[in-house]
Amino acid sequence: MSSEQEQIKKQQIENNAEPERTRDLGRVLNWRRIVGLSALASANFAISFWMGQQAYGWLPPQASSEAVLVDKLFSFMTAVGTFIFIGVTGTLLYSMIYQRAAKYDPTDGPPIEGNTKLEIVWTAVPIMLIIWIGTVSFQTYDQMSLLESFAPAVMQTVGTVPLDQKEAVPGDLEQGKQEPPIEVHSRQWSWEFRYPEQNVSSTELHIPVNQRARFKLTSDDVLHGFYVPAFRVKQDIIPGREIDFSFTPIREGRYRLRDSQYSGTYFASNQTNVVVESEEDYQRWLASAAATTPYAAENMAVKAEEGSINLGWATVQPAPAPMVNYTSSEEDSYE
Amino acid sequence: MSNATLEVKPDQQEPKQNLTPEPGAPENWRRVFTLSSYLKVIGIQYIVTAFIFFLFGGLLAMVMRGELITPEADLVDRTVYNGLFTMHGTIMLFMWTFPMLNGLANYLVPLQIGARDTAFPRINAIAFWLVPVFGVILVASFFIPGGPSQSGWWAYPPVSLQNPTGNLINGQALWLVAVALSGVSSILGAVNLVTTIFRMRAPGMTWFKMPAFCWTVLSAQMIQLIGLPALTAGAVMLLLDLTVGTSFFDPSRGGDPVLYQHFFWFYSHPAVYVIILPIFGVFSEVFPVYARKPLFGYKVVVVSSLLITLFSLVVWVHHMFASGTPGWMRMLFMFSTMAISIPTGIKVFAWVATVWGGKLRLTSGMLFALGGLTTFLFAGITGIMLASTPFDIHVNNTYFVVGHFHYVINGAVVMGFYAAIYHWFPKMTGRMYYEGLGKLHFALTFIGINMIFLPMHPLGLMGMPRRVASYDPEFAFYNVIASLGGFLLGVSTLPFILNMLSSWVRGEEAGDNPWRAIGLEWLVSSPPPHENFEEIPVIVSPPYGYGSDEPLVSNEPAGHPVGNPEGSTAEGALA
User: Fold this and answer.
1) Residue A148: pLDDT over 80
2) Which of A116, B62, B317, B490 has the smallest number of CB atoms closer than 10 Å to its CB?
């Protein structure tokens, strides 16, 4: 979305905010009023733009190409939302401060029952606005193509990827050197990541940077959710199904992976780390893990601390701990 | 209630209308505890019962906030925490908001449409008395072996089918029975209200002369009729899976857990509109009275309620954007969800235009309505963000959603309830409440709500999942603020309870129409006589005729203020 388009759209919202503050067309034509309202609208626009920029700071690090797309969308929606919020609450506050009835004034306000033009404007502007937000969201979702089958089958948005984009773009699969997807086994309450080609299992997810990471999500018992905030990606895992899921990490580091779909008693502790590393480090890690004999990892239920008020309410038996070649050594350090 | 004359305040030019007619039936507090089919008793029974459950659900929430004030799960055990959030959500929705709305609707709709009673008084009484029945079932699950349901108020299978106790009677089974009974109760209530609005309007009350509150009740109850059978069926199927081993939803026996999610959200998303629509109605009633202006764009506002009803039935998959749904479905429901913001936006703009240029009186009712509108606006904006699939995938099932949802339910709906109670309290009891306590209540509530629910948005953006008993230390800061806000919100109910109880017993006499409001309910005595109207009124004007002198009814009883007669006002309207 170019900034010019954004500007035009903002102005459309301003146009909406203006008539809302007036009830008499004759008084709108007063130039002082027009200047004053334009100044207010510009101030609102400036604050909204600033809020839109602030929005990036409320989110975790951008560790995937999907995160870049989602953050841009969120920043844009924050700016639009701020503009509307300030416009409406500002109007209400003005009324509350300056338009109060004098004590013991029994008269009524002006009997204005509506204004067709105004009502058409404030119906049409939101319609255009949501078509705009919806289109941007659609393009963003299409570019993310988390569930791979979606992108080729349904309407592809051609030419929405900027030509100068250097990072690996989702959906931009390098044919030929494709490895089989990493198998994600979720259980009550543990994570197991299985690399079928190397016959390696780990409780910590390792993926190479700047390559499309592909997964086959499975659950042995109940619903779980595969969620890495730094990647802005999430997918429920449905028992009895295999879900293909993919994204592209673009930043090396350790990030938190959380179970995002409520899975019973120890749901909150069902977390692990994701390590995004260079291709060489990744291969080195795979090789060293493959050389290790599998051993039983821990179930998170064992590690979770107890609360002091326990009423003896029931809980299900935790699943057996996964047999893995690797468990994380520094589990609590992540970005 | 006695009919003592009001003191004449020295500031007032003329003596007031102070002789309220004898109410048709003795107003006796004992009636509240009887098996009455008398609608206004049922209305108050609903409201009082619901409010008690509100306090209970709020207490559960405060224990949860106590747990979340530190990152570790140290106050209550995880099983207890999981039971608490399950019961908190269930009680707040099924035992507080729905009964509360039914109470308001039962009390106000017949008065506002000029009817003496609802269409099916006995069905109405059954619908009400099911509320304490399933309330007791729900609360009983705290005391059975294994404790209450711990699967969240969505009760998604397979977690809800795991039944760790192995007993036939377990918390989840009781929960499902209660939800199914709640569905039956709400369907019965909806049949009664929809029929009443269709068939029992007074002569002259055409659709476009009907008050906005009745329109929103009609729109909301139509959702109940269409959507509730799906949830009730889903609950019964889940109960069969759990108890007799059918396999509708159990994947280990070939069922489909995602199918349950469709059943559940097909109703439970529209349910939010069932709750919020009557609150929109309250806003539409309250703003004109205290701004002394007609409701701006009345026809568009009431028709947009019906549009919301229609749209609300085709948006449910937005709760499942991260679930087992294909891409095309996510995109389709993204657009339909965004479309619902159009009729909603029309209403918001119309309220702002109603308030604009008026002669505002910031009574407690008006403050709560304005506060509720502001929080609703905020929730609407985050709602459009959530409708956007790519962003929703990041914040789905995080605290961002919890914050958004509570801005709707606790922000707009609960504040809307308070606005309604303050606005109609003089009508229901014949007494005035204490304005100072009401304003204190508003200040505490408004600050508390923002303090607890605003920090949940950054928490969700940072990636804190909902329903966690423990969390990573990076989330601690905002959680401490939220917890303190939660406790403040708990405290905020105290001035309200004090105000209501003491005002009901010894508040000033309110008179028939203390707000100089226009509407049929303000033409009768306070509290209204047994069958509302001695003579059924004949309506000749649209509602909200502020600033015009047209009478609302052609056969108004002598001596009742209509339109804007000066001098026939009570103290509250001018203070």
Assistant:
1) no
2) A116
Please state, rounded to an integer, the average pLDDT across all residues of chain B: 88
Asked if residues B412 and B279 have their Cβ atoms less than 8 Å apart, the reply is: yes
Q: What is the mean pLDDT of residues A267-294?
A: 94
Kindly report the average pLDDT of chain A as a whole number.
Answer: 84
Distance from CA of B531 to the nearest CA of A (A): 31
For the ranges A55-64, A225-234, B21-30, B536-545, the lowest mean pLDDT is seen at B21-30
Burial B40-78 (b: 16+ CB within 10 A, else e): bbbbbbbbebbbebbebbbebbbbbbebbbbeebbbbbb
Distance of CA B574 to the CA centre of its chain: 29
CB atoms A105 and B574 under 8 Å? yes
d(CA B205, CA B196): 13
Q: Which of A89, A134, A258 sits opposite B374 (nearest CB)?
A: A89
Domain range list for chain B: 511-575
Cβ separation of A314 and B330 shorter than 8 Å? no
Residue A180's alpha-carbon distances to A171, A226, A273, B287, B539, in angstroms, are 16, 19, 21, 62, 74
| Contact across the interface for A268 and B468, Cβ inside 8 Å | yes
- What is the CATH number assigned to the segment(s) A182-304+313-324? 2.60.40.420
Structure tokens at B298: 């009345």
Q: Which chain A residues are within 8 Å of B454, Cβ to Cβ? A: none
Residue of A109, A134, A227 with shortest CB distance to B546: A109
The pLDDT tens digits for B371-426 are 999 999 999 999 999 999 999 999 999 999 999 999 999 999 999 999 999 999 99
Q: What would the two tokens of residue B557 be?
A: 């009883």
Q: pTM for the full model? A: 0.89
- Quote the tokens at residue A213: 């990471």
Q: What would the two tokens of residue B499 be?
A: 């105000």
The size of the A-B interface in CB pairs under 8 A is 347
Across the interface, which of B326, B384, B396 has its CB nearest the CB of A150? Answer: B326
CB contact under 8 A, A109 and B357: yes
- Pairing mode, if any, of strands A205-208 and A271-277? parallel
The amino acid present at A33, given as its one-letter code, is: R
Give the residue-averaged pLDDT of A298-308: 82
DSSP tally for chain B: helices H, then strands E: 18, 0
What is the domain partition of chain A in residue ranges?
3-100+116-144, 182-304+313-324
Instruction: Read off the tokens for B201.
Output: 């309007």
Q: Is the CB of B564 less than 8 angstroms away from the CB of A95? A: no
Say whether the peptide bond before residue B21 is cis (omega within 30 degrees of 0): no
- How many Cβ atoms from other residues are within 10 Å of residue A174's Cβ? 9
For range A305-326, the mean pLDDT: 87
Compare all CA atoms of chain A with the CA of B456 and give the residue at the minimum distance: A58
Question: How many CB atoms sit inside 10 A of residue B333's CB?
Answer: 21
CA distance A223 to B322: 12
pLDDT at B342 over 80: yes
What is this model's ipTM?
0.89
Torsion, Cα of B376, B84, B63, B491 (10° steps):
40
Whether the bond between B29 and the residue before it is cis, its omega within 30 degrees of 0, is no
Alpha-carbon distance of B454 to A158, in angstroms, equals 39
Q: Is B393 an 8 Å CB contact of chain A? A: yes
Bridge partner list, A245:
A215
Per the CB < 8 A criterion, the answer to whether B325 and B399 are in contact is no
Least Cα separation, residue A293 to chain B (angstroms)? 31
Distance CA B153, CA B90 (A): 5
The verdict on B561 touching A (C-beta cutoff 8 Å) is no
The interface residues of chain A toward chain B in range 254-313, judged by CB-CB distance below 8 A, are 256, 258-269, 271, 304-313
Instruction: Give pLDDT, residue A209.
Output: 95
